[in-house]
Specification:
Elements (H helix, E strand, L loop, with lengths): L2 H17 L2 H14 L2 H22 L6 H16 L1 H29 L7 H6 L1
Helix pairs in contact: 2-5, 3-4
Pfam families: Com_YlbF
Protein name: YlbF family regulator
Length: 125
């Protein structure tokens, strides 16, 4: 078996283990709650629509107006005021923190004893 096959098998095992974590289970439950709450789902869909519009403007080189920026901030604030949306957002953040830690540990394994920069340090470079 080639080294890459072993690594990929280990990735599958890692994924299975991660799927059993409390953080992952909480995230999946929060997603299900979001899907079954009409108001929360509408808030998120509206926010996603605005985010896509903003991204399209950025890609087209169109500067964002103050109205665009304010609309986005207001949509974000409205969405996060909803307890179901807030719980989903927080659950995603917690699981993302686990994934960031996993990525850091993988880099440690790749680099060995070399110091591994954290994501904040990489962003500054």
């Amino acid at each position: 078996m080639a080294k890459i096959d072993t690594a990929l098998d280990m990735c599958v095992q890692l994924g299975k283990i991660l799927s059993e974590t409390e953080e992952y289970q909480n995230m999946k439950q929060a997603e299900a709650n979001l899907l079954h709450d009409e108001k929360a789902r509408q808030l998120v869909e509206g926010l996603q629509k605005l985010q896509m519009e903003v991204q399209q403007k950025k890609l087209a080189g169109i500067p964002l107006s103050e109205v665009d920026k304010n609309n986005m901030l207001e949509a974000e604030a409205r969405a996060i005021e909803n307890p179901v949306v807030k719980a989903s957002f927080e659950a995603h953040e917690k699981f993302q923190a686990i994934m960031t830690l996993v990525s850091t540990k993988i880099r440690e394994g790749i680099l060995g004893t070399q110091q591994v920069p954290c994501d904040d340090e990489e962003a500054e470079e």
